[in-house]
Amino acid sequence: MDTQPSFTPNPVCAAVARAIAVKQSQHKLAAACGVSQSLISRAKIDGHVSARLAIAIHRATEGAVPGSALRPDLWRSPEHVPLEDAADAAAGGMS
Question: Are 9 and 47 in contact (CB under 8 A)?
């Protein structure tokens, strides 16, 4: 009896892979996010993404890969992802 083990890919790993595809390479995604290529590679392999990186990927892919797909424990939907960081808020408040 040939039975293959059931394999459900980590949805976070799949979301990182989609982000890489959108930006066309790990290096380009890393540059757009302001992180190292090795961090992107590690995120793709182990599925661990910080909240900061999730927001950076959301921005870099213009929402094609939402932060909520990368950190569903923090945000339930793309609308819940806080895209303004403290620097953006401070700059906006000084105008």
Answer: no
Enter the CATH code of domain 11-93: 1.10.260.40
pLDDT tens digits, one per residue of 40-90:
999 999 999 999 999 999 999 999 999 999 999 999 888 888 987 544 433
Three-state SS string over the chain comes to: CCCCCCCCCCHHHHHHHHHHHHHCCHHHHHHHHCCCHHHHHHHHHHCCCCHHHHHHHHHHCCCCCCHHHHCCCCCCCHHHCCCCCHHHHHHHHCC
What residues contact 18, with CB distance under 8 A and at least 6 apart?
Answer: 61, 64, 65
Q: Give me the pLDDT at residue 95, please.
A: 35
**Of 79, 76, 75, 40, nearest in space to 57 by CA:** 40
